[in-house]
Fold this protein.
Amino acid sequence: MSASFSAVQFLEGCPQCPHGPMLAKSFNPVRFVCTAFRRKGDCARDAQSYRELLSTQSSLVELQSVEPEKRAYCFDCDHLFVSSNSDKRHASHQVSLGITDQLLRMPSFLLRPMANSHSHSQYFFSLDTLNHLYSIIHQLGIQFVICVGTPRLHEFVQLQRSCRQQSMNSYLLDMDFRLRLFKQWFYNPNQFSRYNMINGFFFTHDDRNRFESFCNGPGQTYENCLVFCDPPFAAPMVFVLENLSKIGSYLLPGNVGNKTSQTETRPFCRTMLVLPHFFDRKLARLNPTFSLLDYKVFKL
């Protein structure tokens, strides 16, 4: 997800595209743009790709009924399917065979980053970075991590829970439609919602309700949770920060995440952002409560 905006804002009653409320980019006349894609055609193509994939995926029952050696994933079509000699649809495509249960639970190690600079600018953390980040978060005494745009960190936290019986838990908010399509396999559906961090848009009511249920779960408090976000490089940070504050406020008593007015000040729960080093001054102007932690983060 990548967009380049300057002097933009949300207007009351603004129109919506498939990715939520649109931004007003110019005012004479008013021109609205998608928050997720800088080009109008990319917005429509992303929505169309989601609809097409939704109708072509192999069923969960079918995938469960075969051994991993017969499961396949097509990188050209973003299609998870059961391989057979009679199926020629992916004959000339790049396909990965032998999709194990473990790999299905960690899809960022299966899926390729959508890194087209004109639409998506997706990167995944390296394993060394994940170990380092997990160590930092663990030392802070965090028990719950809300991962915003960081699917690989979410997967790593869940891996530590299942393999090493660690108590830290996580919830993923991400816009990648591929994760939504395969959530039956890839993620516990109660720990993932499709979400646009720039306009704070949950793609369905169920997405919002699942996140609210997680925030209201046993043990979750404002003090032991961390919001961890890797925003798109050119995202308008003023909107990202506003929505990170809203995310944190879901953890407050009374669950005010979707009730507080836009003009009302919300406190930040503990939040970590992954940003280029030169964003330091800009971030300090937008929210001086953030401090620079000088780490080198490796992405794939």
Q: What stands out?
A: Residues 1-7, 259-265 have pLDDT under 50 and may be disordered.
